[in-house]
């Protein structure tokens, strides 16, 4: 049995996905169904997505939450809210330097439990609908060129730490977004299928090697 912990923001939570509660919940359901169908080992999946979270917020809660579940596999999917800005694109919620430092700290903390860490990249937005984002009480806006900078930082950290990276920047199209920011059910299904392939590879490694904390 492996314990999988998935941490992130509202996209991990499954915001606005009416049919499936997000890609992380789909992943949990699929792994449970496969275990029952094949009479194989069950894996426990915990989705820890909090709406509005940045890497700064996640860093504040990760240690306590990880300790409570003792994960064998960690999936980190955060950054799009770091790239959000107020008024000017230069006024981002979390500057790029701090974002990279936060992500590195999260990886270090995750590796204190397991070597099996997966980083998930960022989805693009429909800029016509999110400048500003009408459902933000703070007047946040999002721009794809800014999101791309943060996505590249995630790729960089994954490369430096030799971690699997799920690139999703070209996966979700404008038609896969509910209100310009969050994926709809079709978008979450795409994310689930894409990220599942990486999770299954890591699970196979765990099964071959045994749980390596």
From TrEMBL:
Gene3D superfamilies from the entry? Answer: SGNH hydrolase
Task: Supply the InterPro entries for this chain.
Answer: Iah1-like (IPR045136), SGNH_hydro (IPR013830), SGNH_hydro_sf (IPR036514)
The domain of life for this entry's organism is Bacteria
Q: Taking every annotated instance into account, which residue ranges of this chain make up the domain SGNH hydrolase-type esterase?
A: 8-189
- PANTHER family noted in UniProt: ISOAMYL ACETATE-HYDROLYZING ESTERASE 1, ISOAMYL ACETATE-HYDROLYZING ESTERASE 1 HOMOLOG
Full protein name = SGNH hydrolase-type esterase domain-containing protein
Organism expressing this protein natively: Candidatus Lloydbacteria bacterium RIFCSPHIGHO2_02_FULL_54_17
What lineage does UniProt assign to this protein's organism? Bacteria, Candidatus Lloydiibacteriota
């Amino acid at each position: 049995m492996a314990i999988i912990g998935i941490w992130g923001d509202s996209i991990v939570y499954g915001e606005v996905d009416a049919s499936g509660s997000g890609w992380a919940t789909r992943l949990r359901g699929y792994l449970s169904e496969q275990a029952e169908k094949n009479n194989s080992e069950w894996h426990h999946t915990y989705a820890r997505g909090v709406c509005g979270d940045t890497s700064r917020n996640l860093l504040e809660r990760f240690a306590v939450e990880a300790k409570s579940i003792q994960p064998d596999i960690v999936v980190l999917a955060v950054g799009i809210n770091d790239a959000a800005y107020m008024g000017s694109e230069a006024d981002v919620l979390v500057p790029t330097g701090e974002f990279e430092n936060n992500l590195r700290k999260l990886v270090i903390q995750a590796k204190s439990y397991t070597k099996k860490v997966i980083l998930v990249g960022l989805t693009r937005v429909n800029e016509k609908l999110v400048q500003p984002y009408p459902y933000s009480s703070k007047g946040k806006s999002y721009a794809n060129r800014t999101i791309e900078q943060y996505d590249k930082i995630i790729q960089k950290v994954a490369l430096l730490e030799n971690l699997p990276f799920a690139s999703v920047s070209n996966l979700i199209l404008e038609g896969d977004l509910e209100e310009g920011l969050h994926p709809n059910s079709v978008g979450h299904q795409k994310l689930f299928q894409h990220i599942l392939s990486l999770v299954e590879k890591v699970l196979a490694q765990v099964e071959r090697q045994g749980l390596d904390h």
